[in-house]
Amino acid sequence: KTELMADADPVGQFLDACCEVTAGERIGVVEAHKVFLAWCDETSSAPWSARAFASIMVEKGLHKVKSSTYWWEPLRWRDDDFTRSVRDRAGSGLEPVRQPEHDPEPEPPF
Question: 70-73 and 27-28 as β-strands: parallel, antiparallel, unpaired?
Fold first, then answer.
């Protein structure tokens, strides 16, 4: 039964596989849908329209916010090989995964 329910929720599977709910983070609405379509292709899931995808994102508690463009908040991409691969399939020019703001400096070799 659980597998059947998961199969009926590809947006939830996509979010679990590729995204993390993180305060202060955001993903572009168009970018998220493009990556979702690439994820559908990768996982042999049926693609959903942008409108249906957005409706489910709101049902899942995400907020569509407008600044200069529309964003999903609070959401960020997972920093793993699978997510990078799916994002690459979606096309170049997508916003890179944000790195931690304070990376420690590497120790000098001497």
Answer: antiparallel
* Chain segment 77-102, per-residue pLDDT in tens: 999 999 999 999 998 555 554 444 44
Cα–Cα distance measured from residue 99 to residue 88, given in angstroms and rounded to the nearest whole number: 17
Tell me the one-letter amino acid at 21: V
Q: Any idea what DSSP says for residue 99?
A: P
Cβ atoms of 13 and 45 within 8 Å: the answer is yes
Q: Which contacts (CB < 8 Å, 24+ apart) does range 4-13 have?
A: 10/40, 10/43, 10/45, 10/46, 10/48, 11/36, 11/48, 11/53, 11/56, 11/57, 11/60, 12/56, 12/60, 13/43, 13/45
- In 3D space, the residue among 86, 110, 107 whose CA is nearest the CA of residue 33 turns out to be 86
pTM for the whole structure: 0.78
Alpha helices in the chain (DSSP H): 2-7, 10-18, 29-43, 50-59, 81-90
